[in-house]
């Protein structure tokens, strides 16, 4: 029952002024246990805002982040799941599933969260799950046209993770849900 | 599961013999069938179990029923949302996601429950530390927590208040004490506790295989020790009842074992529930926890009760009363705690049990009708006794109270009631005051010189979850949607009486096939607008021909289109709520919802007229984009639309301008109609629901008079049209008046209206 928010690529203030109002009204403190942020916030104020939502905040460095102390990649263990975090601009070709799978194997995680393409994606392949929460502000991107603001909320419950995708389409918040189950690995 | 420190079963019961000493006070209770089984006795007194003279079987049946209802309740309410989600039918994700602000969503309830649990746990950890070995074990805490949570969920208007746990604790204790007694009896009389299945007593020695394994001497030995089953009737009747209470094969089987460890939680819950509700009687403990003023007095019940106490005190001991009043000691300072926990904090647990024996022994039925009595909260024998007891406690401290000269030390004295109290004296005095108490409670005189410093403007906001205050976002959400709801309710209730929905069904059937192809997201949106449309449709339904159907339908949907757009942002959640309820019914319902929306949406497309394809630009809300997508398939249905459309618009327009014409002409100025319609809308918007309703009624009647040639259906249509216009306007008002989404919705509304105007002007 752990709620983990995956969000990123806000590009505030350069490409977007703020989160959409509807998203902001949904993100209230007290409900979310962890926030993982793919990067490109870009300024400290946004970091503080996210911190106010939840004290447990994990960020990796995106190419436009003004704080250079964020790490390039990060691995977090929540419940039974190992979650890997990376911005994604380091993985070339950008958004390519095979390369991301390589990164996932490298980090040895079950769920890999990356961003940079500003487009929501959730893939499942044999090793695990790759999630791209998209851009929470809908900031423009050089590789994606017509960006819809989106973010992802993961509900981790034992060996099962339910991924809720919140997208803002035409002014309306749309929610979709994807279920992933982890096969219990035999521990020796 | 016996606690480490043994509970002393009933050591502190005033011995039966002494009850005769009070004989003049309580003759009817000199024989109490279950004197040493407090749990059972209290359950009888509280009304859960039938009265003492019933048979054992009755007891068992009633017990079993109570337990069943609790078990069902527990199963229903305590399953956490995310786990039980696989079996459930489709739930609208927009409403039901974890971040949803909608407090009625499953996640909202989950978080609310989590809040409640946190509060309850805080209190439970501090419960009765002196009996910690019993109350602080995790199992007991779990039991208490579950009972409290369930009760609070069942009664959301009370929520959880500190003190409820202290009311519950002695009940649980008493039930456990009964079990202790049972195990004592079992030890002493174990021969009688035979496993009496089917009337046969099965002993180990009866099994035949034993003889194979054992030598004959052993067999003989065992048989020698085999006890003879004595007849139950030989025993003391009390022991008899204890034994038959625990018989696993009596009526209702194991569920009916009156003294059962397995069901201690169920029994405690029913006792707690009855104690809080008062069971139709006057004294309901829950009242003392409520902040809301009772309708009769305008005061919260606690204040009412406290003033009752002071009233009684004034009649009994005027000097003490004046002394306290002069010092400014308001009764609720100490009475709050006394009453809310029923003196639980003033006496040690053992003493408390005795006191509660007395309290519960008295009847709780209301003595007089509610209107005649000033203090409803004590309007029963039990209530009178409670107030009398409180006063006698005050009198007990009389000397020390009169001695002090400031309020603080008075309160200190009152709040820390001395440990070694002669309970019997206290109770005797209370009984003697009871008559006075009942008189005082019934009097209607104003209290002399007694002011209430805590004014009744404590009346809290009408939040349905009084216990845990809704967080800010939920309140905002509720406020926003409450306005929308109110207006809708008002509008609908004023609308015309029910018409048959036949025509809408026809439309639905025709459009059934169309809407299947919508994507999930679209379907979400489509569903969003369903309930609103349903309401409007209900208003408008009537026995019309299909042509009229399509006419009114198109108008209906035209307006609905506007409504939808206007309401998108505002009533999204509202509709989702309704929609959720709809979806919960069954799939056909779902389909019909989709169909209805689809129908509205696509007839709006037809209104938008001969503009196929992508239709109205990208800035238009999705409903119209859906409509354009669906346009092609339904073109045939709505062919007669354009003419009648203008017909109706123009006719209405004329009426609006106070011109009663005979026959609206089909080609009556389109250019007139569109700006006219626009004006009409805005004029209606300004006048507000009252004015518009009157006008529409007047318009209706005038139209009806004038419009003979078209026949009745068209007049009916116009009625419907007005009704729709009515609701649409109200919705516009909602939009205008709702703070947050003002600009968005107004802009959208304007866009829509402009679009309609353009289309009409094209014809």
Describe the structure.
The complex is a heterodimer of chains A (188) and B (763). Chain A is mainly β and 188 residues long. Chain A has a single domain, classed as Metallo-dependent phosphatases (Purple Acid Phosphatase, chain A, domain 2, 4-Layer Sandwich). Chain A is 14% helix and 36% strand. In chain A, helix 3 links the parallel strand 5 (81-86) and strand 6 (111-113). Helix content of chain B is 62%, strand content 0%. The longest helix of chain B is centred in the C-terminal third of the chain and has 37 residues, at 670-706. The radius of gyration of chain B is 36 Å and the shape is globular. Classes of the chains: A mainly beta (188), B mainly alpha (763). The A-B interface holds A 1, 3, 25-28, 30-31, 153, 155, 157, 162, 164, 166, 169-177 and B 80, 82-83, 93-94, 97-101, 111, 471-473, 520-521, 524-525, 568-569, 572, 621-622, 744.
Q: State the total count of DSSP E strands of chain B.
A: 0
The global form of chain B is globular
Tell me the total number of β-strands of chain A.
11
Distance between the termini of chain B: 85 Å
Using brief descriptors, characterize the structure shown.
heterodimer; A: 188 residues; mainly beta; Purple Acid Phosphatase, chain A, domain 2; six-stranded mixed β-sheet; five-stranded mixed β-sheet; 3 helices; globular; B: 763 residues; mainly alpha; 33 helices; 62% helix; 0% strand; disordered N terminus; Vacuolar protein sorting-associated protein 29 (chain A); Calcineurin-like_PHP_lpxH (chain A); Vps29 (chain A); transport (chain A)
Secondary-structure blueprint:
The complex is a heterodimer of chains A (188) and B (763).
Chain A: E1 2-7, H1 21-26, E2 34-37, H2 44-53, E3 57-59, E4 73-78, E5 81-86, H3 97-107, E6 111-113, E7 120-125, E8 128-133, E9 150-157, E10 160-169, E11 172-181
Chain B: H1 16-19, H2 38-46, H3 56-77, H4 93-96, H5 106-124, H6 132-135, H7 138-154, H8 164-188, H9 209-213, H10 216-225, H11 237-245, H12 264-277, H13 285-289, H14 301-316, H15 318-327, H16 331-340, H17 349-361, H18 381-396, H19 398-403, H20 407-415, H21 423-442, H22 472-494, H23 502-510, H24 520-528, H25 530-540, H26 546-570, H27 572-585, H28 587-608, H29 622-634, H30 641-656, H31 670-706, H32 712-737, H33 742-762
Helix pairs in contact in B: 3-12, 5-7, 7-12, 8-12, 14-15, 14-16, 14-18, 14-21, 18-21, 22-32, 23-26, 23-28, 25-26, 25-28, 26-28, 26-32, 26-33, 27-28, 28-29, 30-31, 31-32, 31-33, 32-33
